[in-house]
């Protein structure tokens, strides 16, 4: 991502804006790709729209929100990078925003305030996500959907049910974005293990709420000799990372900037996968047979059709095995809650 952004700034800013085919990115031909951001004027949506505007893999950027879209779209559109930006401001324009989209990123919905769980957002966000997914089924059923809206453990199952009802469901094309958990795990591990953060890799599996977030620090690289107490503290901090930000923002919302960064990394991985770049692997909450649960976050190989392969968990420590068993009841019930809501 960093490399791609630098390339974007150094070379593509001076390039014409409407090439059908472009070379010079990861040695691959770069076709036109449309990305739609739904909730583009929000706390996440604005910086995410900025980061997608900097991504040279994007040719068309559709920014949709029910409020304040024109200003955000006008602002972002002045940046001299490849993509053409169009803002869509009302329900009546949602179809146009989605038509032809290769990737749809959804950060629409309300964020937490202190004292709330992600599940407390269900009543409002479930309906928002359902409506947006009905439109996706109608206008861009082949798009890769990046679900950011919380509670992800329920909104992804909601999306799957909506798509099933519409007859468009393809499990390869639906992703819950859990990249922020990985971003946090990498940052916290690097700090504790005193290793360069840019070299760190840590898979994070399970779901995206509290104890359902399970970082696998036993698989972290570069290896470090951390004590059990240190691993427990790192695990807890990763699981509570969202709450740490919610409390620091003291009523003004939840993570937006780090989430925009994480969302941009994940969307970039989807675009690379679609473009045929080999070995694109990110953790994501997807339909899965890795455990007995129908949805589960783990490493996923992303290719031309979306999910190419859901990778297994690898060797777990006793602590992680215990964490895995503990998270299953909560994750199961959040998944079932989403399915029940959407099938009513
Ligand atoms: N997956 C993850 O790791 C993370 C998820 N989130 C979630 O992302 C969501 C958005 O958070 P923020 O951007 O901070 O909230 P925000 O309130 O700042 O922005 C949400 C935006 O969604 C828009 N919106 C509402 N209903 C809409 C609809 N039907 N269609 C299109 N746009 C609509 C609003 O107008 C607003 O601009 C929340 O549910 C939050 O919990 C937040 C951080 C991390
Ligand atoms: O904590 C929240 O409500 C937002 C979120 O999902 C995160 O920051 O991981």
Automatic annotation (TrEMBL):
GO CC aspect terms: mitochondrial matrix
Cell compartments where the protein resides: Mitochondrion matrix
EC number of the protein: 1.1.1.37
Principal EC category: oxidoreductase
PROSITE patterns per the UniProt record, alphabetical: MDH
Catalytic activity line of the entry: (S)-malate + NAD(+) = oxaloacetate + NADH + H(+)
Domain Lactate/malate dehydrogenase N-terminal residue range list: 34-176
Chain sites annotated for binding NAD(+): 39-45, 65, 125, 148-150, 259
Regions that span the bilayer: none
Record GO terms (molecular function): L-malate dehydrogenase (NAD+) activity
Entry superkingdom: Eukaryota
Chief location category: mitochondrion
InterPro entries, alphabetized: L-lactate/malate_DH (IPR001557), Lactate/malate_DH_C (IPR022383), Lactate/malate_DH_N (IPR001236), Lactate_DH/Glyco_Ohase_4_C (IPR015955), Malate_DH_AS (IPR001252), Malate_DH_type1 (IPR010097), NAD(P)-bd_dom_sf (IPR036291)
Keywords from the UniProt entry: Mitochondrion, NAD, Oxidoreductase, Transit peptide, Tricarboxylic acid cycle
GO terms (BP aspect): malate metabolic process; tricarboxylic acid cycle
Domain Lactate/malate dehydrogenase C-terminal: 178-341
Record-annotated active site: 208
Record: residues binding substrate: 112, 118, 150, 184
Family to which this protein belongs: Belongs to the LDH/MDH superfamily. MDH type 1 family.
Subunit note: Homodimer.
Name under which the protein is recorded: Malate dehydrogenase
């Amino acid at each position: 991502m960093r490399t791609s952004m630098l390339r974007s700034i150094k070379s593509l800013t001076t390039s014409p804006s409407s090439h059908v085919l472009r070379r010079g990115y990861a040695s691959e031909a770069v076709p036109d790709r449309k990305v739609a951001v739904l909730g583009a004027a929000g706390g996440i949506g604005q910086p995410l729209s900025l980061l997608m505007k900097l991504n040279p893999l994007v040719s068309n950027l559709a920014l949709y929100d029910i409020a304040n879209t024109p200003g955000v779209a006008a602002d972002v559109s002045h940046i001299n990078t490849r993509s053409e930006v169009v803002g869509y401001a009302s329900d009546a324009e949602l179809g146009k925003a989605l038509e032809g989209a290769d990737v749809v990123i959804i950060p629409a919905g309300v964020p937490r305030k202190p004292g709330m769980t992600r599940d407390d957002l269900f009543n409002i966000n479930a309906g928002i996500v359902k409506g947006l997914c009905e439109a996706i089924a109608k206008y861009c059923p082949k798009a890769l959907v990046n679900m950011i809206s919380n509670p992800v453990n329920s909104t992804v199952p909601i999306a799957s049910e909506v798509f099933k009802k519409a007859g468009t469901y393809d499990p390869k094309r639906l992703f819950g974005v859990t990249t922020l958990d990985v971003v946090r795990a990498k940052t916290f591990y690097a700090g504790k293990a005193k290793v360069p953060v840019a070299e760190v890799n840590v898979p994070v599996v399970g779901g995206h709420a509290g104890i359902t977030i399970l970082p696998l620090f036993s698989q972290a690289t570069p290896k470090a000799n951390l004590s059990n107490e240190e691993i427990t503290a790192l695990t807890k901090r990763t699981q509570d990372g969202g709450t740490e930000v919610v409390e620091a923002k003291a009523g003004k919302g939840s993570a937006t900037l780090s989430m925009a960064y994480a969302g941009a990394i994940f969307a970039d991985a989807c675009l690379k996968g679609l473009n045929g770049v080999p070995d694109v692997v990110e953790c994501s909450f997807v339909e899965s047979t890795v455990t007995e649960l129908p949805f589960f976050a783990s490493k996923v190989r992303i290719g031309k059709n979306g999910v190419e392969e859901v990778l297994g968990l690898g060797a777990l420590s006793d602590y992680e095995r215990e964490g895995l068993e503990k998270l299953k009841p909560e994750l199961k019930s959040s998944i079932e809650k989403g399915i029940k809501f959407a099938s009513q």
